[in-house]
Amino acid sequence: MSYLEYVVAAYAVFVMVMAYEFIAPRLQIRRAHRAARQRAARTAPRPGMNPNELTR
What we know:
Blueprint: H1 4-43
């Protein structure tokens, strides 16, 4: 009796989990950076606007 299929499946699952653990934090950081850039762009004063002028 051979356990080859079991070993191959176990290694395949291990590789998939390790790939997920490697990629997921990078995607999360990328989303956070994009959100921070968008937030900064929204709060930055627009060119040509007087910073002392009241806005509506």
